[in-house]
What does this fold into?
Amino acid sequence: MKIAGIDLGKEPLFLAPMEDVTDASFRYICKEYGADMMYTEFVSADGLIRDAWKSREKLVLSDDERPVGIQIYGHIPEAMIQAAQMAEETRPDVIDINFGCPKNKIAKRGAGSGWLRDPEGMVEITRRLVQAVSTPVTVKTRLGWDEDSIIIGELAEALQDAGIAALTIHGRTRSQMYKGEADWKPIGAVKANPRIRIPIIGNGDICTPQQARRAFDQYGVDGIMIGRASFGHPWLFREIRHYLETGHVLAPMSIANRVVLAKRHLAKSLEVKGDRVGILEMRRHLSSYFKGLPDFKSTRLKLVTEDDPQELFNILNFIAKKWG
It folds into this structure.
């Protein structure tokens, strides 16, 4: 599969852009475990052009994580174009437009999946943004606003004609948020459309290697994007790749190895963001690495409240000793 001139190989696996999750330290780990292409946390166009430090910080990329995309969102076309041009200065491999985020604070002001209520405007801003940058532009969106407006079939054609290099489709409507099951049939229908020439990437409820295999075989997608299932489970990419290539399921990662991984993730977060922010942003990851452990409640509480880096490493050593 190729996005513009970027060769991603056969059946590539994508790490979805996730706010407060896919920062540099998490991307570092996911790349190591087999993600073929990754995306930054989504970046507010308004925040970027106002020079907000948190938005600018998300644009920092390293060569060892390539290929990597920067995803932007917004509801004001001029701001989105300016933000895309600013993002291009950091040399991402692609610029992705977020037409899929269902959160109220984003969608209700017309950004993210809010654009699904204005498909003509969505296509027009896409066309303008493609013309404004030289970097390949991709789009991530949903099936439609609600079950009465499943527009992805005609929308995919229009977005392709606007010049995008690839399209990622999440198999839910905006109204569904993340509830229910993702519907991959419309994604498969888009891929089967003879007018579609760009790669189609499927997204939604890929939590196991078997589900990934089924998505490729049953719906014919060019790639799959993994979001929430990677949270606390970044080695899922390795498990999926092994299954795709061999048909066999890898043994579960041991607790001892999860501790080793958590330590490296924590060290990278501290390196990138410093002690205070690095610890705060690692809390959600550290507790998720050890889901399902028996009698873990008190230890989990320590993981999400401790402020001292060395004490966190000591807690991880304790986990390895007691459960590993």
User: Anything to note?
Assistant: Residues 84 and 303 are 38 Å apart (CA to CA). The first strand starts at residue 2 and ends at 3. The longest helix spans residues 255-288. The chain has two domains: 6-246, 255-323.
